[in-house]
Design brief:
Arc Repressor Mutant, subunit A; single chain; 14 helices; mainly alpha; 7% strand; Rossmann fold
Length: 283
Amino acid sequence: MGHGTIDVVLDVRQLLAELAFPRDECVVLDPSLVSAAAAENIADAIARYPRALVAYSSVTTSALESSVVLAQRTSARFVFRGTPNERSALQRALLLTPNSELGAQVLVALEPHLHQLPQMLRDKIESMFSTGDGPGSSDALAAASSITRRSLDRRVTDAGLLSARAVIEAARVTWSYRAITESIVPLGRIAALLGYNSSRTMDQQIRRSIGASSSQLRQYPLALPDATERLVHHLVASEDAKQTRSKNTQTPEDVKASFKLITGGMRSRRGNRIIPPDARTNP
């Protein structure tokens, strides 16, 4: 497909050995070729050495048992042969495989914040950065985490993160980073596969998250530590932002009363005026 190289392994033993080395970004597996027991071993290895996993198979009885194991124990993306959208689904799954090292570094840096989140929400966010798939909006993330939207926003900000929206945007950067920096696929096509209405929308979000447009990243890719630092800096709320939120949540007793007086005329003026206790207002 013009955006990667393929290494073929001959059996499960060789696959498990290859997973111990961080050279590949994605494992493409036909569930019909492995037993349920082998699928368990693969799931254990994926947990130890995180990789995106694409299960590409026809819908057959032989694939059912191992597919169930992979679906329950991994975040595999399933693409089925013979379906009308087979080609586009497979291209999306392979092209948008996240840079595993970038996603892992971001998650390590965010660990103190993620640790404060409810387990289901934390698992969902970690999966988003690891697999290249997940909710595309704050409402969808709340639903997938079994909490309300209001609770999602509160939990995320209480954990010191900027917003749920920022988390989703940062995850999408990790999904697209490899495709942008290592492939020759047109940027408009990448934006479409990500679900953006236009490449301009993708550019806006990437620039907001990492400080560079997709075309700039393609021409001058950032080193992964630099990209990680920028993403984390965007995600973690600054001390100024925390203080602002604290001020905005002060109780009424903490807020000093003031009067805003507006005078007449062509241009109104606003100001604060302290009224002494013995002052009287004339009718």
